[in-house]
Amino acid sequence: MSQLNNPSQWTTGADPPTDKQKGFISTLASSKNLPVDDPSSLTKSEASAKINELKDAPTQNADGPAADGPSAVGPPIQDPDSWTTGDEKATGKQMGYVAVMAKKAGESVPGEMGKTDASKKIEELKAKTGM
For a tag on the chain, would you pick the N or C end, based on fewer CB atoms within 10 A? Predict the structure, then answer.
């Protein structure tokens, strides 16, 4: 496993979490209806692990049990139309997701897209494929 994939080996892993990490933890927890302790008490390494844990966690209904299936797939955390970088070329990851899901949905793989359009296409394809 590379050092990049293992935050506990980061040179700065014992430093306090960044503001972006703290904000992302709070946003993820809120979007999944999960309680979370104050992220300021974490190290940068622990914050990274908490982000991965929250990204992989199922969304909780307001009553508590996890939501299952495609209905558990929620909208993007932030509205893609409000992105300041939305007109920039889609990332490689975005285009990879679009390609895999488009093939599964029986659609042709689109050419170049902007970040906003790619995000919207990913959400559309998630709904179609249940991925």
Answer: N
